[in-house]
Amino acid sequence: MKLLMLGSGTSTGVPRIGNDWGLCDPAEPRNRRSRVSIIVESNDGQRLLVDTSTDLRAQLLVNGIDRIDAVFWTHDHADHCHGIDDLRPMRYGRAGPIPGYAASETVRRLRQRFGYVFAGQFGYHTLVELDTLDRLRMCMGFGIASCQMPHGPAQSTAFRFDCDGKTIGYATDFSEITREMVDLFRGTDLLVVDCLRREPHPTHAHLAMALELIEVCRVGKGVLTHLDKSMDFATVSAEVPPHVLVGYDGLGLAA
């Protein structure tokens, strides 16, 4: 099973508008971060997209992705879903809509804001057949497990994907570690973890919290994501243990 990190940055990306790189070295390409999204791919080529980031079109183009088989959303914050219209070309040539899944409240909010995506409009096809995660256990050959994570006053969905004898976990946008998260991610081969900055934040994990989750779950390899302009790639890479990688746009890993 493979992981492709389409985007690795916080909600404003790096650099921020105004060419603000913060502490990040502009000469290091891995510091240029678009908004977070990943693809998980099985050995037989089935692809699951997690989140439709604001930068989805550019991410798919630069990585040569022209097809996905299902889409999952962690939550409905703008940087995770406002690229939803870029799913339209993925619908072309399909016999039916793309399967899509999210937690019940996220489903409600997405339907409210992007009704045409899920019901069609003015003769245009429905793009996504959206359903809740309540009874989902398998999708396109992947085992699917999930739980809700605290994201400040909101919630975000954590995912675990099992396929080909390997496991990939995805935990972005969380502000505390819960027992449900530890149970979900324990022993995963690869875990992608929210890591906004070094200092604590009210709605996101900071570096110490991200490393704590990786360690307590005893994962094979951890990858940091949702990084802001204070998290220079080379500097943070020198600070983390050998089994932890600083994520970057375009990073591809096998579980």
From TrEMBL:
Superkingdom assignment: Bacteria
Domain called Metallo-beta-lactamase: residue spans: 47-226
Full protein name: MBL fold metallo-hydrolase
